[in-house]
Each structure stands twice: as structure tokens, then as C-alpha cells.
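call fold target=LLGL scribble cell polarity complex component 1
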Amino acid sequence: MRRKGQAVPAPAPVCQWQSLKAASVGLQVSQGQLCLGCAPSQPSPPLPSLQTVEHGFPNQPSALAFDPELRIMAIGTRSGAVKIYGAPGVEFTGLHRDAATVTQMHFLPGQGRLLTLLDDSSLHLWEIIHHNGCAHLEEALSFQLPGRPGFDGASAPPSLTRVTVVLLVAAGDMAALGTEGGSVFFLDITTLTLLEGQTLGPDEVLRSLPDDYRCGKALGPVESLQGHLRDPTKILIGYSRGLLVIWNQAARCVDHVFLGNQQLESLCWGRDGSTVTSSHSDGSYAVWSADVGSSLALQPTVATTPYGPFPCKAINKILWRNCESGGHFIIFSGGMPRASYGDRHCVSVLRAEVLVTLDFTSRIIDFFTVHSTRPEDEFDDPQALAVLLEEELVVLDLQTPGWPAVPAPYLAPLHSSAITCSAHVANVPAKLWARIVSAGEQQSPQPASSASSWPITGGRNLAQEPSQRGLLLTGHEDGTVRFWDASGVALRPLYKLSTAGLFQTDCEHADSLAQAAEDDWPPFRKVGCFDPYSDDPRLGVQKVSLCKYTAQMVVAGTAGQVLVLELSDVSSEHAVSVASVDLLQDREGFTWKGHERLSPRTGLLPWAAGFQPRVLVQCLPPAAVTAVTLHTEWGLVAFGTSHGFGLFDYQRKSPVLARCTLHPNDSLAMEGPLSRVKSLKKSLRQSFRRIRKSRVSGKKRAANANSKLQEANAQLAEQACPHDVEMTPVQRRIEPRSADDSLSGVVRCLYFADTFLRDAAHHGPTMWAGTNSGSVFAYALEVPVAAAAGSEKRPEGAVEAVLGKEVQLMHRAPVVAIAVLDGRGRPLPEPYEASRDLAQAPDMQGGHAVLIASEEQFKVFTLPKVSAKTKFKLTAHEGCRVRKVALATFASVACEDYAETCLACLTNLGDVHVFSVPGLRPQVHYSCIRKEDISGIASCVFTRHGQGFYLISPSEFERFSLSARNITEPLCSLDISWPRNATRASYRLRESPKLSQANGTPSIILAPQSCDGSPDPAHSKGTDTSEPLEAVLSPMSVDSATSADTTLDTTGDVTVEDVKDFLGSSEESEKNLRNLADDEARACAILIK
């Protein structure tokens, strides 16, 4: 699996022992990885991507399709991606070679094939390719409509041959293409070639029209093509001028003509073929009679403007569906009064006298109804209406009174309000999980009839039930925290926590007042949950932390608010305690120029079942909270801002500690993220400092020119020496950062630990804080000890904090993370894990150590002396900076009981490094995120078991896995029925098959069937020589232990063209095999199985 457009990695030297060890602990390993045995002068080539699945809503959707037989749905995007969804867990992805917008999509019903049209008028046929029990979506064929010769022999302008509409003719594997020039071309689907002699030009249609209609302007582009459900030889053609024609493809003649004069937008053919419905640019629609009595219709039987009589916008699409119970549905988009509601995005649903105007908050892309499509059925009987919007997918149940919205099991808009932070909670207890699910069900109770009416149910999810439940928490700009089920492929919404109810906002009840002022006509109904506007930006959530054992959590926001909440199964009414902590400690010379604090509501407040606030701690000044941590066993919460950090006892509701970390010159921290005030003096001062530094450094460079030249010559001499001589890696020189840099007092991380700080004989509670200037503060805490281990609450008594240690890193690099390791080198357990026997108790006999990770290096200090033990200078060795750090447990694939804890690190270049703990030896090195994707790197969050999430768009999380044992990816089955004479076409495109997959995420097991139901023997895309070639080229065939743990499968996707540049001579191959065999023999004694 590779990222979009990533080439096959080249083989490179690999340290055999390191590969075996990494594989034994469950790390994904492959050729080209960075490890200790490789020469540092050899660059590590790009590695296969670790991405497994994408969660969320596709970014910038542009097209929609639905297969009524397989019950699967496809969404195309502006970037050329194709995503197909079925039942929860059934999904896979493809990507066009050209990053062009997908404008139309059409399924070949029941065949698992999809025809896409791009905005460059190219057609692409996608197929599901089955190989070795697995399958993926692959582009099989492509087609570009050739230019039509003009009068002077040259090709016609591209605009005349631009494809405007596509129709799959039900008679067979044939497609009709309507163009800008008014012609209709016919295409063979199996080969994507034009059918000679079948083209229908506008001149041929004009001959069937009356003379008075023929004169004047041209017919215009083909706007719509519709097929007859029961007579596939008839095609309904609609031209932009308003003319409608029923064309008989078998007889090559016009059967019926409807002389419309209003500009046409869309068409819909009635189920029995006796009526035709057209929608127009003036907001009207018309119903025409298609009886065989007359071949010419001058006027429609019904013509109406639903939201007239004032000028209205165009009705872009209209559907007519009849019902067995009587009446019919008319569903259309647009048509709103231009002056009053021209900016609304609406879909109107009309049945008999009932009209509902569905009002959405984003632009409508397309919509379809789920209804009966069998020709023998007399009625459509629509079950559901699916509307694809630019920012979400909404499904309505049309069989339940009131047409309620159906909750989506996936494709939920993660960005309903902009995501501001995220966190992952692994191994959630079953009791807490059930309580969260129950609270979520009480928030949006659904009718019993619509609880299981999700209409997109194709395929079967074959993935095993997850061994543990994982929660993904996302904080949002509107002050909400959303809980997602991240246990499997489908990211399912569970519960939404809102903190806005505790505060008085500036724009309170604005929406309700606006709705009350509106008239009853049109009958608007707000639908969907996408709401990009926040009442107050100060509500934005910056940090979240959840204790899964006590169901307590802390939510910190943009205006310095820190909320401690507790899960309750019933609604209640209570007041929330409010306390303030002044982090400046009355320091003179600082004036806060940023936003004001939020005003909390006072008195008894109603709270629904779920997480209810207990204590509100307000930081002063009200700057955004940059770090937070919670220790429920001690009843403490620590928080930090750009001014300092504080410690609060939420059990006694009293502050314990406040420490200011501001530098005397750090005035930028007083302006706040929402302030537009910029200090002119500060800017001038910084400018002069830069000029002064550049002059000084220039003089130093001139003075040291000769020495620099000597160093360069020495390096050239070293490069010319024999390569078998082992050399010390060259380290980059790191300049120390200035002590008075802006925002040097920002608190980056906070950490609680029960360890040795005062002396080596007594351990106790401690709190650690790391800042942007490389300072680390360690406090010894006096916490009353509970009488019984594992009790919910500690005894009453004041908590005291005493500064025990203060460490200043040499280069003043920002401290990213802090963790204490026990005597066995393992991280300390979470609160209540050890006391409730949920995890192994930490080793308190051996010496503890503290791991401090800065942006430039990792360093382990012994405790309590805080002396350096080991370190790894990442910036000096790799030239990158640390952005995210986490301690992850990697379980062995060969031995279920064995696991190791490693340090996972994400850099500013988008690479993921894994180091051993506490030795800090490099294990593996992966290229994960594009270095240009700054928001993706900033949003990354690691899990405890070697996975991670990061945003690839405002609405999508990409999931990746560093662990060979813990992988979440699609695994599903799909029953496909092929016509007897149908053949696979995928062999026609062989340039780079893997490029047709976006992110390489799908992995689908198929059961292809022929028309008689027997398995299809001709479904494989490989040739007779493919298997021997794969056996020769497979680098994992040498080492069975490594290949067993490798999950990056490229079987069947590597061709001779892909690897011919990397093939060596036979002598080199034999030498490499001998070396690998010798290394394997030496390493077998230490291989852990």
C-alpha cells in the first residue's frame, strides 16, 4: 500500500538483526527502513505507506451514484478520488491518474463496475479486481471523445465535443453520451470504443420538428438523457433550448416530440413511460403526456412554479416517484424565490398536499431515492431519500410519517464544527462504553421504525470483532466534544458533549430568533448537523483528557476555562462551582491585551444525562490552555497556558499551585490568539536584533572562512576513502535558542507520576511541567493517602506542592513530552490501573528514570539525582524537529504474551521514528505524512497500541498503523453477478495499476459469479508467468520470520517495468543471499518467537 503517486521503494541495505527484532515485537518492517546497522551516509529511501483506512466525510464531493442491486453508493471528489460504501465496514477507494473533478458517476447494476466522467470529458471504467482472495478497486479502461471534423477539415472546438451527460442504456453494455454540440454518441462499455454509425446528430432531430420551431436558435447542448425502464430501446433526450425527444434506438427514428420553449435543467421519466417531467431555469416544472396517440406535444398537461409567482431560481434536478398507496412523490432541488431565499440550499419533497422544504447549510451536490427498480414492479414505492451535500450526507426515511432523518453509521461530518483538538482512549471498559452509548441515544432518540432503516447495506463486513474498544475524542470550535467509536473501519458517532450551556455568549439564541421571524412559507425544515459558525470563538476546545476508570474528564478552552466533568446516567439540576487561578502572580509590567473571559451562568442549571460539569477553573489572564492533565486518584487537575501553569484540587475545589513562566521580554504572550493588536515597539526591537545578529554572524563567518574550507576538504577526503571503513556519523550543529524569544513561557506538557524525587528511599506523587524555552519543573506533592486501595475518593485534606527539581535544557528547545520510567524501564500505569489490578504494578525497587522529549532530542535522566543517562539527538542526526511523541506498546505477532514499549515520534518532515525505551535505539523509520501538510502533522495523535490518526482534510482522518499485530483496515465480501458474455477489461491499462488506489486503503474479498451463479473462473488479472515472477522478486521470501510479520502486501501489483531499474546481476544476487543466510544463522539465537 502506498500513498497517492508514490513509487515502489528501492531495495537498500537492512540490518538483519534489527529487522528480526522489530518484527518480533510487532513493528511493521520492510526493505529500506532506517536501522542501526546501516551506514548513516546512505539515505533511507521512501517506505511504503502505513495508512490503512480513511475516516469521516470525503473532502469536496462532486458526484454521486447508487447501485440498487448491490445497495452500494459511490462518491466522487474534486481531486479525482472515488469512494464506494456499503454496509458499515464495507468501503474502498480509488484515485484517477489525473487530478480532475469527477462530474458524473454511474454503476453498472449488479456488476461491481463504475463509469465515471471527469471535467476534462474523459470517461473511466472502474472494476473490482479479485486476486488471491483479496480485491481492490482499479481503473480498467479510459476513453476521450475525439474531436469532430469541421468544414475546413480541422477538428471541431473542444467545447462542442465536451460530454455533458452520460446514460447507461439498459439494453446491454452500451452508454449514450450527450455533448455540448447537441450530438449523442453511443459507446461500447466493454471496450470503451465508439459504435460506428450510431451517432445521433442535432440535424437528424431537427428534421422531425415543425418548420416554425426549427427556425431560430439551435437546440443547444444535451442537458439530460433518460432511459425507459421497460423498453430499453427508447431514450428520452432533453436539449438546453427546452425540446424533448423520445428517440427509438432500434428503429433509428424519433417516436415523440415535446415542444418546450423554456431552458431545460433536468428530466425524469415516469415508471410506466406515459409521463415525462421536466424542470426549467425559471423555477418551474412541467408534466408531459407521452401517449402513443400523438407523436407531437405542443403544451404540457401540467406546468407550475411551486414557489412563484415572483422570479425563482432554477430547479436543477427533479424526481417523480409513484406509490402503491396512492399519490406520488415529487422531489426537486432549487426553485426558491430569487429575492428572498436565493441563497438557501433546499430540496423540496411534495406528496399530495404535504410540502416540506429541506433547508441545508451547504451546497447540494446530488440526490437519489432508494426505490424498486425491477421492471415487473408497477410502483416505485421510495423507501429513502439520500442527499449528498458539500459537507455531509443526509438520509431521510420516506416510509415513516414526518420523514425523519436516519442517523448515519458512518460518513458523519467530523467538521460539523471545525476540529481544534483530538485525543484517543484505548481499552475502554465495557461499562463505561455502555454508559456513553446510552447517553448518546438519549440525545437523539429515533423512532423504532427508522432505527434500522439505513438504506446502503451492500456487502458483508468480514472483519473480526475488535478485541478492545477505542474512543476518539474531537474538540471543536463551538465548545463541543464529540465521542466516536474508533474500534473498526466505520467511525461511528456515539455522543456529543456541549460546554456552551455553562456560559453566557454574545450571540445567544440568535438562530431561534431568526427562525421565529421567518414566515410559514416556504415551509422550511432545518436538516443536517453541519454548522460551521460558532457563537463565540472563545468557546473553542483546546485540550481534552478522559479517565476511563472513573468516567471523569477535563475540557479546556480558548478563553482559559478548565472544566472538570463527571458522567451521570440521569439528568440533574445543579450549580457549578467556579474558581479562578491567577498565573501571573501579581507580576508587574504585564497587561493582558487579548479577549475577555467567558461569563459563567450562576445558580441551578439543568443538565442532560451524560457528562455534567462539576467545577469550572478560570485561568487569569484568560489565554488559551496549552496543556492539561488529570489524575483522578489524587483528585487533581493541572493546566498550563502561555503565562504559566497551575494545579487545582477539584475534590476540595481549591487551588494548590500557580507558577508564572513568562520571560521579562515575553510581551507577545500578553496579546492572545484572538487579539489583532500588535506592538510596534516589539516588532522594531525584534527587527534590530535580527540585524545585529546577522552582522555578528557575518563577521564570524568571514573569520572562520579558512577553517570552513579545511573542514570541507576533510569531508571530501573522507568520502574518497574505502566504503568498508566504518565512520562516525556527522552531526549537525544546533544553535541554542535565545532566552527572550517570543512565547518562551508557553507550557507545552504536564505530567503526574508517583516516583522518587526527593531521595532514593521514598517515592511519592509528583507533577512535572515543560515549557517552550526548554525548562522542566518538578514538584513534590503531599496528597492524603486513601485508607483502602482503589477507593473512589481520597481522604479530605489539603494538597501541598513543593518545588523539587528544575532542569534547563542546553539549547532551550521546547519540551514536547515527559514520562517517568520504572525500574524495569516501563512507563508508569494510569491512575487506578495498578490499584485495581488492571495493569502490572510498577517496579519501585529499581531506580526510576525520567524521559524528557524536546523538539531536538530525547534524553533519559536518572532519578532522583536527575543525571543524564542516555540521549538521542534527532535534529543533529536527521535534520528534523519533533512534533508529536507517544509511548506505545507493540505486541509480538509470534508470541501473544510478549510486548515491548517503544517511543513513537512524528517529525516536522512527516516521518515517524520508533525508538526503544529506555535505550533510545532507533528501531524503524517510516515516511507517513507529506512534509507540506502542516495541518496534518499538527493534528496527529498516537494510540497506545501503535496506531495513529491525522487530518488529511478538514473532514477526514487518515488512520495509520505502526504495529503488525494491531491493524484496522476494510475486510469485506461483495457478491457480483456478471453477464454471461462479459469479460474483464482491466488488463488494458497496465502502466501503474497501484496508482488507481487512493491511499491504498481497501482490502476486499469478493465472490464473483457468472449469470448462472457459478464462480467466475476468469476474474484474475494475472498471467501465467505472474506467480514465478513474484516468487523471484519478493524480498520477503528470504526471511520467513520477517515476511510473516509484514502487512504491506504488494502481491500482483509489481511488474517487470516497475523493478527493472533495481535488478542486479546474478553474482550480486547470490552474494546477497549468502550474506542474508549467514546473518539469519547468527541471529536465530536472539530471535524472540
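return ok
The first helix runs from residue 16 to 24. The chain has a mean pLDDT of 80.
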